[in-house]
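note to self — DONT lose this again. spent like an hour looking for the file last time. sequence + predicted structure for the chain T wanted, 174 res
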Amino acid sequence: MGGTGTLSAERPTARPAGPFVDRLQAAGFDFFVGVPCSLVGPVIAELERRGLYLPETREDAALGVAAGAYLGGRLPVVIMQNSGLGVSLNALGSLHLLYRMPCLLLVTWRGYRGEDAPEHLVMGRVLPDLLDVLGIPHRAPVPDTVEADVAWAAAQIRERQTPVALVVLPGLFA
């Protein structure tokens, strides 16, 4: 795949959410906000168990909260479906990208390989290209690369001072 990202074509085997959250925190991510999606349900449940998750009703609002957290010295993660990425284009372009406010976008890939409810298929088909057009570096972790991909995302965020995305394939988390 060209552009700024790397996305795998393999469907993952489920992995526990706890070690993933541990890795995010070890990489310096310390503020978690977002809109739920079943593909990251175990991650959200683990964040809630630890008292770390702030739910939002809209993805663009979550990005606004993340911008405030960043200005307050935090390193935010914004959780959303890829359909929510569409809702968030203005907040990303006119706030996070324009003013170089980093955050990790944990974006679920609904409609991956054309497999999902019909409302997810268009965004599923264009997700990698949309991230490329925005200039947002991205990867789709598989179980064997999750730790390395989190480290890559943290390094990219610190270097670029802009959003970076980890795209969650169906079945990655148990």
